[in-house]
Structures are given as C-alpha cells and as structure tokens.
C-alpha cells in the first residue's frame, strides 16, 4: 500500500479529494501569481544601496513573473519599523512584500512601543546579499590596526571617539560587540545618518566611524579617510587589502544583509516561487556586477535557511540589546 493509499484510507475518499483539490488550488494560485501589481515597501529613503538593490531585483521579478509591476514604496522612519509594521499587517497574498535588512530585525527589539516579532510575523522569502560594514579613520588618527586601536582604548578608556549612523543600528551594535569582546572602552557618537557621521569624521570631530562600504567608498578612493577593518568574517573582494576584524577576534562576524520578507501567512507555494526566482536573478551578470560594486556578495539559498538566519539574528541581537539596556520607549 502506497503512502497516498494509506492516507486515503485514513482520511476517507471525500476528505482525500478535498485535500487534493486544495493542493491543486494552491499550486494554481502560485502559477497565476501575481494577479496584480506587487507592492514592495522599503524602510529606507530612495537612493541608498538597499533601495537600489530592491529596485533592481524588483525589476527582474516583474519581468520573470508575467510583467506585473513590482512597485517600490519608500517608507523610511523609526529605523525601518514603519515599513515593517505596514507589511506585517498587509494581506498575506504575496502582493505586499518588504525588502528588509538587518535593521528590520534590530529595530523592534529596541523600540518598546513595537509589538512586532519578526520571526513570528514574517515569512522569509529570499536573502539577496550580505556585505560588510567598515571601520574607517580620519587621516590624522595615529592607530592603524585593530590591535593598536584596542590597546589605545584600554590605556585611555573613552579617549577614542567613533561615529555611527544612529543608536541601535547595526553599526552601533557591531561596535558594542567589539567593546565586549576586547574590554576596550570607546566613546560612541550617534548621528542621524551616514552622511552626518562621515562629515564629522572628515572634520576631525571624531577619530573613527563605522559605516557601509557603499557610503564610504568614494571617500576611501579619494584618500580622504583611511580604512581600518571590515566587520565580516572574511575580507571584502572590493577591498582585499583591508583586514577583517575576525583576523584579530576569531568568530567576529557582523554582516549587513538584505532580502525579501512577506506577511507570515503568505501561501508557501507563492513564497517558494519568489525564492526560486530571486535565486535565478542573483546569477545574472548585471546583478552580480551591481552587488560587487557595493562590496556585497550574493547569498540566495532556501527560504528555510533564511528563516533560520532571522531567528538566530532575533536571538543574538535581542540578547545584546537587553545586555546594553537599549530598549527604550
């Protein structure tokens, strides 16, 4: 007796027929998807690396899924929380997605007013890329390596000032991990975004800054600031001469990732189809070239592996946020 026959005997013919009909309907719904334009909500302003990648991937998704537009909606504010909450409340039919990032996981953990639980409220669709952040120094700062910086901070606690683009963001938390791992004490200086933090570095108001490769690359190429180390486990192919912090602190790995999420109850057949399409899009030369221009690497993989990453990030950052007392009102 086959598994299907045993199941039919247990369920009875009418129940089995209903189950098969429902499965067929779900499959047909995935094949017919999308039936109308798909809204892609982003928690960042237009023009940044995350916005550019979302638009590029969405354009290819539209072309591969029958030409229905994937319409980008920029909804910045509250550290991506406004965008995430809007999508979590949307109809779970695959026609509303968010192009999310590491910040999407971190922000609800910090904002006491949010009831959002990212692993519970979202279905992981596809992770597109991971990229390092980079620690950069102003031209006059004497220490050049992570060991030199740590030694100076240990000798003179609070002496070294480091700018970052906002309290509770991944740049801030990457620095908090560095301090916890080394026992060094830095003075962390939050700003309201990438450019104000880098402007302070250029003026010499701070010694160092933690930011993205995308934001810092023009200044690095012009020689106006100096690279120190990247935050991923390995060096970036874009800056192969710049060491990874992990070379001095084994296990240190804080990448910035981005990818698509959907409301949790979105049909698995639709999520699977989107995942397969993104996987193929990430192989396209145009997409690979753009990713590498940002210093990013394509990731891809199953939606289940992406879901596990989100659950691990939720646990990891939650523990750090609680330890640092960052959860506010």
Automatic annotation (TrEMBL):
The keyword Cell membrane does not apply. Keywords: Signal. Belongs to the UPF0065 (bug) family. Residues 1-30 form the signal peptide. This is Tripartite tricarboxylate transporter substrate binding protein. The keyword Signal applies. It comes from Caldovatus aquaticus. SUPFAM superfamilies: Periplasmic binding protein-like II. Gene3D superfamilies: Bordetella uptake gene, domain 1, Periplasmic binding protein-like II. Pfam families: TctC (PF03401).
């Amino acid at each position: 007796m086959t598994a299907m026959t045993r199941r039919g005997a247990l369920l009875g013919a009418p129940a089995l027929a209903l189950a098969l009909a429902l499965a067929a309907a779900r499959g047909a719904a995935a094949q017919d998807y999308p039936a109308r334009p798909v809204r892609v909500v982003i928690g960042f302003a237009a023009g940044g690396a995350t916005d550019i990648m979302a638009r590029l991937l969405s354009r290819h998704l539209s072309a591969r899924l029958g030409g229905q537009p994937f319409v980008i909606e920029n909804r910045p504010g509250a550290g991506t929380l406004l965008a995430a909450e809007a999508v979590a409340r949307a109809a779970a039919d695959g026609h509303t997605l968010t192009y999310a990032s590491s910040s999407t996981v971190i922000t609800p953990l910090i904002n006491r007013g949010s009831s959002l639980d990212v692993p519970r409220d979202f279905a992981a669709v596809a992770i597109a890329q991971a990229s390092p952040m980079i620690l950069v120094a102003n031209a006059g700062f004497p220490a050049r390596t992570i060991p030199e910086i740590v030694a100076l901070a240990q000798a003179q606690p609070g002496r070294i000032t480091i700018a970052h683009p906002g309290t509770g963001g991944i740049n801030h938390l990457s620095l908090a991990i560095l301090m916890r791992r080394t026992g060094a004490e830095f003075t962390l200086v939050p700003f309201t975004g990438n450019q104000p933090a880098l402007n302070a570095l250029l003026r010499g108001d701070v010694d160092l800054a933690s930011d993205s490769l995308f934001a810092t690359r023009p200044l690095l190429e012009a020689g106006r600031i100096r690279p120190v180390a990247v935050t991923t486990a390995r060096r970036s192919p874009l800056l192969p001469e710049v060491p990874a912090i992990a070379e001095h602190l084994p296990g240190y790995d804080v990448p910035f990732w981005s990818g698509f999420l959907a409301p949790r109850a979105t049909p698995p057949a639709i999520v699977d189809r989107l995942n397969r399409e993104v996987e193929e899009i990430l192989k396209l030369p145009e997409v690979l070239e753009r990713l590498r221009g940002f210093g990013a690497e394509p990731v891809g993989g199953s939606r289940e592996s992406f879901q596990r990453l989100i659950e691990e990030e939720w646990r990891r950052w939650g523990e750090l946020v609680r330890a640092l007392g960052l959860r506010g009102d």
